[in-house]
Amino acid sequence: MQFGRSYEEFEVGAVYQHWPGKTVTEYDDHLFCLLTMNHHPLHLDTHYAAGSTQFGQNVVVGNYVYSLLLGMSVPDVSGKAIANLEIESLQHVAPTFHGDTIYGETTVLDKWESTSKDDRGVVHVETIGYKQDGTVVCIFRRKVMVPKANYLEARGGEQPGRPVPVPDRNWPGREPAAQG
After folding, report:
1. What is the pLDDT of residue 159?
2. Region Disordered: what ranges (predicted)?
3. What is Dmax (Cα atoms) for the chain?
4. Which residues on neighbouring strands pair with residue 101, listed in sequence order?
5. What residues does 139 pair with on adjacent strands?
6. Dihedral through CA 3, CA 128, CA 46, CA 33, nearest 10?
7. Does the pLDDT value for residue 110 go beyond 80?
């Protein structure tokens, strides 16, 4: 399974559909609100939301939807990133409710080589999130500094820092590969 990409693997215009989607539960929404100290009743108080808002129900806090989509994009976009440089724009364009399933996809808008170091580049992407019925709920653009292949090779390849399992009394080690 691929986890992120090197600079050379990005192509302008490529679209990465992130899988799987995530069904947002009331628990997810409330926990995120409580962890981030966002106590707005639109997100936490069912009685308030039912009688005092245009939606008639709790709305999932937007920063959770954004964070979910950002996380969904990591295996396709930033899993090998050196740095997230900028969130250029963030738009919440429709509400998400408890029980909605969020899907995401990212389009590569542009890319350019670093002017200061020859082992990396910058990728400019747009991610959209949409519900099970196709309604787009969130759009954001960001710039990510990603390594070139030579950067990865110099630091241990595809899985740098991954240890090798050590045989001991609980595990004797792998059998030698069959010669054929």
Report:
1. 80
2. 155-180
3. 73
4. 23
5. 91, 128
6. 50
7. yes
pLDDT at position 47, please? 96
pLDDT at 140: 98
Which pLDDT belongs to residue 104?
98
pLDDT at 154 over 70: yes
**Cβ(37)–Cβ(69) below 8 Å:** no
CA separation for the pair 120, 174 (Å, rounded): 37
For the record, the structure tokens of 97 come out as 């409710």
Sheet with 101-113: list strands edge to edge: 15-23, 101-113, 120-131, 136-147, 83-92
Q: Locate all alpha helices (DSSP H) within the chain, ordered by sequence.
A: 26-35, 41-44, 46-52, 62-73, 149-154
Crossing angle (nearest 10°) for helices 62-73 and 26-35? 100
Roughly how many angstroms between the first and final C-alpha of the chain, as a whole number?
27
* Residue 55 burial (CB count, 10 A): 11
* The two three-digit tokens of residue 164, written as one number: 């090798």
pLDDT band at 162 (very low <50, low <70, confident <90, very high): confident
Helix (H, G, I), strand (E, B) or coil at 66: helix
Residues 3 and 158: their CA atoms lie apart, in Å, by: 9
Assigned token pair, 96: 């998400």
pLDDT at 180 over 70: no
Q: How far is CA 50 from the centre of its chain?
A: 32
Place of tokens 């215009």: 13
Which DSSP symbol is given to 46?
H
